Amino acid sequence: MVRIFGSKAQAKVLEYMLDNRGKVFNQASLAKSLKLSPSTVSRVAGELAREGIVLEERLDGRMKLLCLNEGDEMVKLILDFYEKIKALRGGNV
């Protein structure tokens, strides 16, 4: 669990991606949206990618694109858990 929700920044990135599933983000826009530094988003995304939760791809060798790996079994469980928690809290996690 610590590898998935290891830090506040990691939980923030994961929650944002869960709320915006199906979308592809570039690292800079994700950092701006979440008010995190690009280096923090890079570190967090790398950790989530190693767990198979996030897919990363470099575009033109520079821009890093990120998306939630919705085909992964662990991500499916996280999504189910997240939706249940949201329902219990009236849409707020």
In short:
It contains four helices and three strands; from the N terminus they run αβααββα.
- Residue-averaged pLDDT, rounded? 90
Roughly how much helix do the residues carry, as a percent range? 40-55%
**How many DSSP E strands?**
3
Spatial shape: globular
Strands of the biggest beta sheet: in what spatial order?
1-3-2
The SS-based structural class is alpha+beta
**Which CATH class?**
Mainly Alpha
In DSSP terms, counting alpha (H) and pi (I) runs of 4 or more, how many helices? 4
| N to C succession of SSEs | HEHHEEH
Indicate how many domains the architecture comprises: 1
Roughly what fraction of the amino acids lie in strands?
A: 15-25%
Largest β-sheet summary: 3 strands, antiparallel
Low-confidence stretches: none
> Which architecture does the CATH hierarchy give at level 2?
Orthogonal Bundle
CATH homologous superfamily identity: Winged helix-like DNA-binding domain superfamily/Winged helix DNA-binding domain
**Structural Rg:** 13 Å
- CATH topology: the name is Arc Repressor Mutant, subunit A
How far from one another are the termini? 18 Å
What does this structure look like?
The protein is of the alpha+beta class. The protein has a single domain (8-88), classed as Arc Repressor Mutant, subunit A (Orthogonal Bundle). The chain is 53% helix and 15% strand. Strands 1-3-2 form a three-stranded antiparallel β-sheet. Helix 1 crosses helix 3 and helix 2 (27-34) crosses helix 3. The longest helix has 16 residues, at 73-88.
